[in-house]
Each structure stands twice: as structure tokens, then as C-alpha cells.
Amino acid sequence: MVNQMVKLASRLLLLTLCLSSQVQAATQLKASVDKNPAMYGEAIMLQLQLDEKVDAGAIDFARLEADFRVTGPSVSQSMQIVNGQSSQSTSWQLSLYPRRTGMLTIPAFQIGALSSEPISVEVQPASQTSGKGAELFLQNTFSSESVHVQQMLYYEIKIYFKGELQRGNLSQPELAGADVEQVGKDIENSEIVNGERYQTITRRYSVIPQKSGSLTLNPPFFNGEMIDRDNSRYDYFARTKAVSAEGQPLTLQVKPIPDGQQQNWLASELVALSEEWTPAGDQLVQGEPVTRTITLTALDLADNQLPDLQLGSVAGAKIYPEQPQSRKAERKGRIVAQKVFSYAIIADKAGSLTLPEVRVRWWNTKTNQPDEAVLSAVTLQVAANPQQVQQAEPAALTTTTADRIQPEPVSNWHFSYSSWLLLGLWLLTLAGWGLWAVAAPRTASIDNTSLPRTTGGSELRFNSRKLKQACQQNDAALARQQLLRWAQQLIDANIESLADLVQQLPDGALKTQIQQLSYQGYQPAGVQWQGHALLEAWAHFHHQPAANAEALTPLYPRG
Questions:
Q1: Is 503 inside any structural domain?
Q2: Which end of the chain is more exposed for a tag (fewer CB within 10 A), N or C?
């Protein structure tokens, strides 16, 4: 009986509480700010509190956007029961960042019949309070207030703060009509401002405007968390507090490209050309390639702004350009861009070879006048290649080469003792092939991949007559094929290309001529390869003493 009475009393109490909460109605809507006056760039914390539980979206804060940058709101609701009386509340908290200095008004907000009071806030310029007790503020500047289209300038944001900054976020600058990119990493330092020491974090950006006129950059905005030492002075696990600041809006004047400079527009303080030769020296050898590397360097330019160089053709030489390589780097807060051009140069004949000067037009931003970077003309002496036979002597060379490759032909009907011996060996070989053909079905299951690559038939073997024929007929493709077969059989079975073969050969005439054959792919249409010098070099190399395989090992290492 007692338990039933207790349960009944509890139900009556809950019913009373519910009825009282329903009867209660909101009586006030209160608005307040945490600081007044405020400094431009500081956050003003606006709080609204209603003594009733309502929907979080009951208030529209869009009217604040005209005078403030708004972050939030964050909404919280609570309920309390004291002596049987319940109370509920809803609160909104927003961070307001003034868009300008002067007197700004936070308007009244309304929920039902209740309305908050408007608040007038005085916003002082940052220069009046920066470093005078301010815990956090920003400074943002352009390196120049006026530039030309496509001329790089720098935008710097410096964060000043006192205390221990735990974390933070800095907004990315956005400038319509310009390319903006961060330069390098953030730089941490310290400065004394109005007698107070501040920690600083500096971030730099490169800005390249793409259109003329007046461009406005929105102010930077920083928010983060800082250790709150005032409330937890001796607590190792000190609480953090939210901090924020905003910089100044900046205007940039962009001038158009000067008349007559549109075609070769390159605006910089410094543009230079330099060159290197590999191998080094001012003398070339006929038919042997050298590499000329030209580097175009510019200050305060992006690498994609650098132009290509046009060298054209040069009488007495063939020039094969490689794909240019662009790069850029940051040096002491500024951009240095480079474009590297490499050219393979092969002189056709002995004598004097002159390469014309190279010029790059640019606009000097220091003198505000057009300028030129010049690489002077180069005159080189080309020495005759002793291994390269002049085209006037092909007949004599052919006869000499033929004499070195094979003995004088004899009559087909004259048989010496050695001829009979060779004939007998040939007949025995035929008999062996016949026996192998009979036994072939029994060994068909053997994995062919285990067999040497040169045993697949006579068409895969090296044929010296075919190499001679290819060189005499200037057939580069056939010469390349026979050289690779020769190398695979006598040097290294893993050789796959002329480049592999060159690596296996010692320095000398044959290596040089095979390199020339590998360059044949660079030749323009209609220029035919000449094979007489290669045949001469191969014949000389082929007939070097080689008594046994052990004697070849030092010359052709197998890795």
C-alpha cells in the first residue's frame, strides 16, 4: 500500500512539472558583446539568450553581413529544476569581425513578441591599438602598389601574437584576375612593437595579375586557440581560448603592357643567359657529338612564363634539340625561374663552325625600359676525324676492307686437302641433322626458353658478309641488325641495343662509329648514313689477336 502511494505521488509530481513548463512563457531576449570599443581585426563575441527552449534556427542573422564577417552561430540549450520549478533557455553565440572602422550597429533581433536591444559598437583602427595590449593582430602588405600585367609582386601576411599559440588557420588570399601562390614556408621570428615583444609568423605569396585595372584583395582572416594563462596560471594542462584577427583590404593598380611590347613581354628585374659544353672546350671533332646546354634565368617570374629559344639551322652542323626543362626555386623570399635547353651538335666537316648569338627580349622593371639578354656568337674549330673516311675514297676503302675480311676468292673447282676435309665435315653435319630430325618428336616437350638465343637457325646468326654488304650499301638498319647479332654471339648474349654494345666496347674507332650509327635516328629525311668508316673500324677490331676466350675477358667484361 505504501509503495503504491509513493508511485502515485511521483506521477503527480512529474505531471505538475510538465504543466508548469507548458504554462511558462519566454519573458526576455537579451543581446550582449564581450568588448566595446573593439579593434579592427579583432573578433567581437555576440551572445543572445532567450529564457525558453526554441528551435536553433529561430533567429536570422543575415542582417549582420553588411557590417561584419560572421562566424557561427553555436547554439546551446539547457533546462533546470529548482524547488519544483523548471526553467529552460536557448543561447546563440557568434564571432563578428568588423568590415570597417567607426560606429557600427548590431541590429535588434526578434522572436515572437520579444525583441533584443540594438547595440552600437565603436571599431578603432588597428594602428591605434596594435602592440598596445593587443594579444593578436595582423599586418598585410604588397611589395609594390603598382605593377604591369603579368609582372610578379609579393604579398606578405605577418601574424603578431603574445603568449602560446596552440593552433590556427589563416585564410587563403583571393584576388580576382590574378594568380596567387604561396612562396616557401612560414617564417617564425619575434619583434618588439611599442615596447612589447611579439612572436611573429610570416607567410609570403607571389601574385601575378592577368588583367589591368584596379584589383582589390580581401583582408586576411586568422582564427586559432591560445593558452589561457589568466584562468589557469599554474595549471600544466591550461585551458585554451579562441583568438582571431583580421587584416586590411588592399588595392593594387595594374598597368597594361606598354605599346610595342606585347609580342615578347617578359617583366623582371633580371634576365640572364648562360651556356655549358659537354665535353668542355672550344674544339670539336668531325662527326662526334657534343652537348650545348643553354640556361635562361629570370628573377620574379614563374617558370611557365619563360619563352622557348629559337636557334634555327647552322651551316656545317646538325643540331638536335631536347625537350626543355623548366624549374623554379625560392631564394630569400623571391622566385628564381630557369629554363634549360640542351642541344646535341654534330659537325659535318672540318674547319671553322660559327653558332649565332642568342637574344631574349625582356622588360626591365627597375629602369622601366625594354632590355635584352644576349649570348654572344660562338666560333668553334672542327678537327678532321681520322676514323671518318672522306666520300671521295669509297672505292679504295672497299677494296682494302674486303682484303681484310676475307682471303682472295679461288676457283670453285679447285679442291685442296682442306677443302675435302671441310666437305667431309659438312656431310657429317647433314647426317647429324637427319638424325636430330628423326629424334625431334621425342624431345618436343623440352622448354625452348632454355636454349641459347643464337641457336635458332642461320638467319639468327651473325653473317660477316651481310655486315660488309650493309656498310658498302649504306644500309643502317641491316648494319645495326648484324652488329647486334655479332655482339650477342661474341661479347654478351644480353646485349639488346647499340647503347648496350657501346657500353661493352673499349674506347676506340669502333665505339665511335657505332655511336654515330645510333645517332642515325636523329638525321633529317634525305640524309643517308655512310658505312665505310664503320666497316673499316670493325674489320680492324675484328682481326685483333684473340687466341682464346680467356684473352677476351678483360676487353668484354660480362658484369
A1: yes
A2: N
CA dihedral 327, 328, 331, 335 (to 10 degrees): 150
Distance CA 193, CA 159 (A): 12
Domain membership of residue 50 (yes or no) is yes
Query: In the numeric block, which cell numbers belong to residue 80?
Result: 533546470
Residue showing cell 649504306? 474
Q: CB within 8 A of 220, min separation 6: which ones?
A: 138, 140, 157, 170, 171, 173, 246, 247
pLDDT band at 74 (very low <50, low <70, confident <90, very high): confident
Domain region containing 240: 130-255
Contact 210, 160 (CB under 8 A): no
**Is the previous residue joined to 73 through a cis bond, with omega within 30 degrees of 0?**
yes
Distance CA 96, CA 216 (A): 22
| DSSP helix/strand/coil, 554 | coil
Give the tens place of pLDDT for each residue, 112-153: 888 899 999 998 876 544 445 678 899 999 999 999 999 999
Query: Is the alpha carbon torsion for 225, 229, 232, 238 positive or negative?
Result: positive
Measured CA to CA, the distance from residue 63 to residue 46 in angstroms comes to 14
Residue 312: helix, strand or coil by DSSP? coil
pTM of the predicted model over 0.70: no
- Residue owning grid cell 677476351: 552
pLDDT at 441 over 60: no
Q: If DSSP codes are grouped into helix, strand and coil, which group holds residue 428?
A: helix
Euclidean distance between CA atoms 322 and 345, whole angstroms: 11
pLDDT over threshold 50, residue 378: yes
Q: Same domain, yes or no, for 205 and 294?
A: no
According to DSSP, the residues that pair with 268 across neighbouring strands are: 364
Instruction: Please provide residue 99's backbone torsions phi and psi, each rounded to the nearest 5 degrees.
Output: -85, -10
109/115 Cα distance (integer angstroms): 6
* Parallel/antiparallel/unpaired status of strands 358-364 and 267-268: parallel
DSSP 427: H
pLDDT tens, residue by residue, 360-370: 999 999 999 99
Q: How many C-beta neighbours within 10 Å does residue 239 have? A: 12
We report the CATH number of the domain holding residue 338 as 2.60.40
Computed over every residue of the chain, the mean pLDDT equals 78
Residue 534 CB-density burial (10 A; 0-12 exposed, 13-18 middle, 19+ buried): buried
* Domain termination residue (choose one: 99, 123, 147): 123
Tell me how far apart the alpha carbons of residues 341 and 306 are, in angstroms, rounded to a whole number.
12
The CA–CA distances, whole Å, from 380 to 4, 8, 196, 346, 350 equal 117, 114, 66, 12, 10
Q: How far apart are the first and last CA of the chain?
A: 103
What angle do helix axes 532-542 and 509-518 make, rounded to 10 degrees?
Answer: 140
* Domain total in the chain: 4
| Amino acid 439: pLDDT | 46
CA angle 395, 397, 401 (to 5 degrees): 120
